[in-house]
């Protein structure tokens, strides 16, 4: 059993949820704390997901990978390798088209980027994630996938 995420981790997840929530088309919704089926079993609970609304409305208790359009992981010290390496591979294998990783603690390769830093990835034709944006605090980016919304890492640093 994994330890519960910290209050700061959950607060960041709640703020992250706001970015796409108001912009989501009617057929999609943003959820947190919901299991995602991987390898035919409820394998993980991503921090934030954009999923198809209908199966959830119809009573689905876990998300089938084909309903997930975007998965977001916030990287804490306790699960760094899992969130940076293992989960993205599993999400790509499951066919999740978009993945975001949020770095909230100093990391190798950070350079002069102020935290938090959001990495956005899109699945390519070989079913591998390709980095599309690296967005550090102090900058914003308008994303177009899975639908248009703005990402502003500074909104995650105000705790």
The structural class is alpha+beta
Distance between the termini: 28 Å
The main sheet orders its strands as 1-4-5-6-7-8
Q: What spatial form do the alpha-carbon principal axes imply?
A: globular
Q: Return the string of H and E elements.
A: HEEEEHEHEEEEE
Average pLDDT figure: 92
Radius of gyration from the alpha-carbon trace, in angstroms: 15 Å
Give the oligomeric state of the chains in this entry, treating copies of one chain as homo and distinct chains as hetero: single chain
Fraction in beta strands? 25-35%
The percent range for helix content is 10-25%
Q: What is the topology?
A:
Elements lengths: L6 H15 L6 E4 L4 E3 L2 E4 L3 E5 H5 L10 E8 L4 H15 L3 E6 L10 E10 L5 E9 L3 E3 L5 E3 L8
Q: What would you say this structure looks like, in words?
A:
The chain is an alpha+beta fold and 159 residues long. The protein is built from three helices and ten strands. The strands form three sheets. It has a six-stranded mixed beta sheet. A two-stranded antiparallel sheet has the order 2-3. Strands 9-10 form a two-stranded antiparallel ribbon. Helix 3 (80-94) links the parallel strand 5 and strand 6.
